[in-house]
Amino acid sequence: MDIKEILSKCDHTLLAQTATWEEIKAICDDGIKYNTASVCIPPSFVKRAKEYVGDKLAICTVIGFPNGYNTTAIKALETQDALNNGADEIDMVINIGELKAKNYGYVLNEIMTLKSLCGEKILKVIIETCLLTDDEKIKMCELVTEAKADYIKTSTGFSKAGATFDDIKLFAKHIGPDVKMKAAGGISSISDAEEFIKLGASRLGTSRIVKIVKEMESK
């Protein structure tokens, strides 16, 4: 698989608590240079990043991150603020406890609320697969489809594990035709990235792929 094709599916990501503006600016530069799908950054940097890149690069940010247990009202405020600051894409974390309690109406309403705010802009729904049973993952495929979100996303990268091939295979069997898949967390090699794409993921949440390419270029 052509490396440019892989890079075009990467949300080049920096969500570390210690991230500085200089580091955010550097991944924006990388995102423009390598034509990544977006950069995924903390909400506090969205306005500066969008002003910095203009229309050269999509800016993605996270909502309810990383635990997902903020109230729907707070997630909605976070989302509106991010959109007002220029975010092009929103990655929200579901309320995992409500899912496990089988309060499916709550989870569905929350996704629909944020999608309503996003309008034509992309909403990705992070379900944190490493904390869920297969039945819960299947239920989330159904809820994300019903809510008309754009993507189902495996992981925050802040829990005990990230994306797996089996999870993407499971998603592919149960999502609706208009829902896409994002694999995130622990994607550390080009071969892994290729496999996730072959299985149907159209986005990858990773910073490692760009780093690998830069290392290859420097040799």
Structure description:
The structure is a single chain. The model has no long low-confidence stretch (mean pLDDT 97). Strand 7, helix 9 (190-198) and strand 8 (203-206) form a beta-alpha-beta unit. The chain is α/β, with parallel strands linked by helices. The longest helix has 15 residues, at 104-118. It has an eight-stranded parallel barrel with strand order 1-2-3-4-5-6-7-8, surrounded by eight helices. The chain has a single domain (3-218), classed as Alpha-Beta Barrel (TIM Barrel). It is 47% helix and 16% strand.
Please tag this protein with its features.
10 helices; eight-stranded parallel barrel; TIM Barrel; alpha/beta; single chain; 8 strands; about 220 residues
Summary of the model, kept short:
This protein is an alpha/beta fold and 219 residues long.
Give a topology summary.
Layout: H1 3-7, E1 10-13, H2 21-34, E2 38-41, H3 46-53, E3 59-63, H4 72-84, E4 89-93, H5 96-100, H6 104-118, E5 122-126, H7 134-147, E6 151-153, H8 165-174, E7 180-184, H9 190-198, E8 203-206, H10 208-218
Parallel strand pairs: 1-2, 1-8, 2-3, 3-4, 4-5, 5-6, 6-7, 7-8
Helix pairs in contact: 4-6, 6-7, 7-8
